[in-house]
Amino acid sequence: MEMNKDFLWGGSIAAHQCEGAVKEGNKGTGIMDLVTVGAYGQPREIHREFQAESRYPSHQGIDFYHRYKEDIALFAEMGFKALRISIDWSRIFPKGDEEEPNQAGLEFYHDVVDELLKQKIEPIVTLYHFEMPIHLVTKYGSWTNRKVVDFYLKFCETMFQSLNNKVKYWVTFNEMNHIDPQTEASDIFTYIIAGLKYSEIEDKKQTLATIGYNMTVASCMAVELGHKINPENKIGCVFGIEPVYPVDCNPENVLKAFQQMDRDFYQIDAMCNGEFPKYKIREYQAIGIDLTVNEADQQAFKNGKLDFIGMNYYASSVAEYEGAETGASALFGGLQNPFLKTSKWGWTIDPVGIRYLLNYTYRKYGLPIIITENGLGAVDEIGEDGHIHDEYRIAYLKDHILEVKKAVEIDQVDCFGYLMWGPIDLVSATTGQMSKRYGFIHVDLDDEGRGSLNRSRKDSFDWYKQTIAENAGNLSAQ
Ligand code: BG6
């Protein structure tokens, strides 16, 4: 099978990482509006109240709110077929529990979508990309509370109705799979997804299992709702999955790697197989976690199956069983893969991993898959000629796209698109830095918020343009 001529080449961005304008359009405060910049190696601080001396990078973003036309024109110049954006829930329902949506928020997203359509770029809309109104955390306890599921569904319904016939591709959630009751997490990881700091969560296992469950059922209910509103809607969910390799062929390590990787799939099972997996309920019961799947939820799992799966892929990881002494520990925790290099932020660079993941997931579910994120966070330097020569980014993307091509053309995986993460430099989700840059388009802005915000093309800009024009036919492994 050749790469389809309708293959959706493009990119992905998220509202809180690019829009800025937090005080405009009656926007409420979202969870990520209260998180500071983390300097190299330091975690982002999470505040409950704004502190005058702190810098919160989402407040300025890259000013996409005012510059979206210019930015979309640049994406169109590269030949984008699709752009994945997210809707900031707190622009539509500033506190989350209002009766009526905020018109200014709806208008803004209409304008963005209209601009995309004008430029013949297919909008792919994520309904939850770390952008929950903080009020839903402080008043209701976030996703531990079923009322939040209802508020989310009301928000989804509002968006399905409002953008009906303009948007066809929807994503219910971004990366809910990072919430796992059995894995220790840093504060930022649980906060990003649910507005709760890991260290402050009481009864961690039960709480995280409940959040994971409520989000899963909410996704299924949203799918059902979206199909009812318009049967033409294609609704998926996005997962951030790392292939996990055993550190060696010791069967104990192989088993550990399987267990670690499989942990990220129970929600996909629930969204594709028509029921919440029994193995998960039993596993939870064995460690004292109690989950009740009521009748209404059972129906939701049956009726809310996904149309496609979105995959965010950045890196792979390595596992060993507890007590193993392989000497593979990396400097900053985790295990090193001696076959792979890492980015400046310690993420392994593993192009073959994307082919592995596409094959693994496609064989498990048989559903169409879209790569919804992939990219390299790097420090870019402006050369003497005033341009950024980012051959390292081109190399990373080329190697990954070649593996996607193999998955499609050799392995027959039904992958219908590739969306590069951060086609324009934007605020990093985990660190808050601007200096962790992903883009084809440079934004003149530093970690302290200084800069003209001017946009300029890096070398990778022309390279991606050519790659799209030739449907990746220009790429070779050399
Ligand atoms: C993904 C998120 O997990 O990783 C994005 O969906 C995020 O929001 C991306 O930006 C890259 O992570 P970071 O921390 O480098 O921005």
List keywords for this structure.
alpha/beta; TIM Barrel; eight-stranded parallel β-barrel; two-stranded parallel sheet; 37% helix; globular
- Share of residues in helices: 25-40%
Number of DSSP helical runs: 15
β-strand amount: 5-15%
Compounds present?
6-O-phosphono-beta-D-glucopyranose
Give the biggest beta sheet: 8 strands, parallel, barrel
Number of strands: 12
C-alpha geometry: globular
Rg over alpha carbons: 21 Å
Structural class estimated from helices and strands:
alpha/beta
The CATH C-level class name: Alpha Beta
Query: In the CATH hierarchy, what is the superfamily?
Result: Glycosidases
H and E order: EHHEHHEHHEHHEEHHHHEEHEHEEEH
Number of domains: 1
In the sheet with the most strands, the strands line up as: 1-2-3-4-5-7-9-10
Termini separation: 23 Å
Q: Which consecutive residue ranges, at least 5 long each, have pLDDT under 50?
A: none
User: What is the residue-mean pLDDT, rounded to a whole number?
Assistant: 95
Q: Would you give the CATH topology?
A: TIM Barrel
Q: Return the CATH architecture.
A: Alpha-Beta Barrel
Short description:
By secondary structure, the chain is an alpha/beta fold. The protein has helices at residues 15-18, 64-77, 89-92, 103-118, 134-138, 146-162, 187-194, 204-229, 251-262, 266-272, 278-286, 295-303, 351-365, 391-409, 459-469, and strands spanning 8-12, 82-86, 122-126, 169-174, 234-240, 244-246, 308-312, 317-319, 369-373, 415-421, 441-443, 455-457.
